[in-house]
UniProtKB/TrEMBL annotation:
<dbReference type="Pfam" id="PF00067">
    <property type="entry name" value="p450"/>
</dbReference>
<dbReference type="GO" id="GO:0016020">
    <property type="term" value="C:membrane"/>
</dbReference>
<dbReference type="GO" id="GO:0005506">
    <property type="term" value="F:iron ion binding"/>
</dbReference>
<keyword id="KW-0349">Heme</keyword>
<keyword id="KW-0479">Metal-binding</keyword>
<keyword id="KW-0408">Iron</keyword>
<feature type="compositionally biased region" description="Low complexity">
    <location>
        <begin position="377"/>
        <end position="405"/>
    </location>
</feature>
<dbReference type="InterPro" id="IPR001128">
    <property type="entry name" value="Cyt_P450"/>
</dbReference>
<dbReference type="GO" id="GO:0020037">
    <property type="term" value="F:heme binding"/>
</dbReference>
<dbReference type="InterPro" id="IPR036396">
    <property type="entry name" value="Cyt_P450_sf"/>
</dbReference>
<feature type="binding site" description="axial binding residue">
    <location>
        <position position="491"/>
    </location>
    <ligand>
        <name>heme</name>
    </ligand>
</feature>
<feature type="region of interest" description="Disordered">
    <location>
        <begin position="375"/>
        <end position="405"/>
    </location>
</feature>
<comment type="similarity">
    <text>Belongs to the cytochrome P450 family.</text>
</comment>
<feature type="transmembrane region" description="Helical">
    <location>
        <begin position="12"/>
        <end position="34"/>
    </location>
</feature>
<dbReference type="InterPro" id="IPR002401">
    <property type="entry name" value="Cyt_P450_E_grp-I"/>
</dbReference>
<protein>
    <submittedName>
        <fullName>Uncharacterized protein</fullName>
    </submittedName>
</protein>
<keyword id="KW-0560">Oxidoreductase</keyword>
């Protein structure tokens, strides 16, 4: 049977199927158009149905911090939609204060962040909320306020700064290229292990032994950071493939080191108790948590098992090792890029040494280093202390008021982004609505480059911005200069970090000159800290001053 127009009846059915496909396509296109229409006023990267801004974010992942600078310089608040959540990035100090202080309880770390970071940070202070966080912070706060810890920290930081100086001196004489970031990481790892956990691990030894823990720790850090934009990470973990397979291998090495530290401290505590020498028990941070875990009932604080102590250790490693070493690395790089600042630092340290030596009645030897033979600032306190030791001892006072203090972290903050969860719907001070279940991230890297925060020269390296006309130090709001966070979660170890940086920099800036290896790329890599992707390869030269002083001191001893 045929239709009136002569078309076979059977040929009509394929057209029906074709029409269904056309309808589906039209519906899908309409959905996209409606979605784009609803987002027409959105300020931020291009967002698509289901996948959100994943494509653009993956394309810019290697330069994400600068990618956000581009958006946040135009819009102080930017929302980036992702498949299972959304990120609202903020750079306005008013919004930052609202999140970190005013409405602090509405912006915890949150379940999303904790699920990404738990494999590395567990229930440690950086990954905890509520009562668990408060107990850890209270214990750590008590320890950081301890005069014994502060005094011991100063001794340890001085010791490792001088060890670093010795390695640089040898490299200078041998004409070797060194990776300053690696050396800084070794110095700060040794320091936090001794100050925080009471153990000596010796990675800053002259032969620079293999450091498998540090390598595994960095690999773990990189992979968990990738989770924030990788919608397939849970599938990869389930299938045990790709980055998640590497993560499992790395975390095993990390845990082996961490549990060995815990066992060593527990054994030392038991030995001291058995011998009746309680006074020999070191009261470092780990020991405090061990004692807390041994307490009965509710006061035990949940730290009675090694897994909880493991989380404490790793959180303090990332706080005491990575952040300080990263800041020192960028500091060194910036002084190489701005030699006039490095020279000003050297002059300042020379003058400070002379003043300090006169106050203490130390013998002063005129000994120019070839730059200013007749300049009084080229004198040095040479005896009885070594010049490096003298500079280190004086550095705390020196760096309190200097315009070249480690405020370098304004442009290169150790933690470039810090995400928070959202418990309940809220409205930020600038009117932006944020929804429960999403995340708000304040961005120190971007904030340091925003003209609406720092003026037209925001992206310029100008240490003088921190000094008033009368020469006094000019502080900034912690909600504007967020390198150490602010509000109830402000960094407990800020003063300790500054002290270690001051001591190391007093030696580096006073006695050494650094030259970047030609062609060496200086780029950050994406992880929770602003680490340099390829390290910081430099050639080190040592001024004639320290060599002359060494030989003069030897002659004095011989005579």
């Amino acid at each position: 049977m045929e239709e009136a127009h002569g078309m076979p009846a059977t040929s009509f059915f394929p057209l029906i199927g074709l029409n269904k496909y056309v309808t589906v396509i039209l519906v899908f296109l309409s959905w996209i158009l409606i979605h784009k229409w609803n987002l027409r006023k959105q300020k931020g990267p291009r967002s698509w149905p289901i996948i959100g801004a994943t494509v653009e974010q993956l394309r810019n992942y290697h330069r994400m911090h600068d990618w956000l600078v581009e958006y946040l310089s135009k819009h102080r608040t930017v929302t980036v939609d992702m498949p299972f959540t959304s990120y609202t990035y903020i750079a306005d100090p008013v919004n930052v204060e609202h999140v970190l202080k005013t409405n602090f309880t509405n912006y915890p770390k949150g379940d999303v962040y904790r699920s990404y970071m738990h494999v590395l940070l567990g229930d440690g202070i950086f990954n905890a909320d509520g009562e668990l966080w408060r107990k850890q912070r209270k214990t750590a706060s008590f320890e950081f306020a301890s005069k014994n810890l502060r005094d011991f920290s100063a001794i340890v930081f001085r010791e490792y700064s001088l060890k670093l100086s010795s390695i640089l001196s040898q490299a200078s004489m041998a004409g070797k290229v060194v990776d300053m970031q690696e050396l800084f990481m070794r110095m700060t790892l040794d320091s936090i292990c001794k100050v925080g956990f009471g153990v000596e691990i010796g990675t800053l030894s002259p032969d620079l032994p293999e450091n498998s823990f540090a390598q595994a720790f960095d690999a773990t850090n990189i992979i968990v950071t990738l989770r924030f934009i990788d919608p397939l990470w849970r599938l990869k973990r389930f299938l045990h493939v790709g980055s998640e397979a590497l993560l499992e291998q790395s975390i095993k090495l990390v845990d082996e080191f961490t549990y060995s530290v815990i066992r060593r401290r527990k054994a030392e505590i038991l030995e001291a108790r058995a011998s009746g020498k309680q006074e020999k028990i070191k009261h470092d941070i780990l020991s405090r948590f061990i004692e807390l875990g041994e307490a009965d009932g509710e006061d035990g604080g949940g730290f009675g098992d090694d897994k909880s102590l493991r989380d404490v250790v790793l959180n303090f490693v990332i706080a005491g090792r990575d952040t300080t070493a990263t800041t020192l690395s960028w500091f060194t790089y910036m002084t190489m890029a701005h030699p006039e600042v490095a020279e000003k630092l050297r002059r300042e340290l020379r003058a400070f040494e002379v003043e300090r030596a006169r106050e203490e009645g130390v013998m002063i030897i005129p000994c120019g280093d070839g730059d200013e033979e007749n300049d009084e600032s080229s004198f040095a306190a040479a005896w009885p202390s070594s010049p490096a030791s003298s500079a280190t001892t004086a550095s705390a006072s020196w760096c309190t008021s200097t315009p070249a203090s480690p405020r370098r972290c304004r442009l290169y903050p150790a933690v470039p982004q810090d995400p928070k969860g959202i418990l309940e719907d809220d409205v930020l001070p600038d009117g932006r609505k944020v929804r429960a279940g999403g995340m708000v991230t304040y961005v120190p890297y971007s904030m340091g480059r925003m003209e609406y925060n720092w003026g037209a020269d925001a992206a310029s390296f100008r240490p003088e911005r921190w000094i008033n006309d009368d020469g006094a130090f000019r502080n900034a709001s912690p909600f504007k200069f967020t390198a150490f966070q602010a509000g109830p979660r402000i960094c407990l170890g800020k003063d300790s970090a500054y002290l270690q940086m001051k001591m190391a920099l007093a030696i580096l800036c006073r006695f050494y000159r650094f030259q970047l290896v030609e062609g060496h790329p200086v780029e950050y890599r994406m992880m929770t800290i602003l680490s340099m992707a390829h390290g910081l390869k430099v050639r080190v030269t040592q001024g004639r001053l320290i060599v002359q002083l060494f030989h003069r001191a030897v002659r004095i001893i011989i005579q």
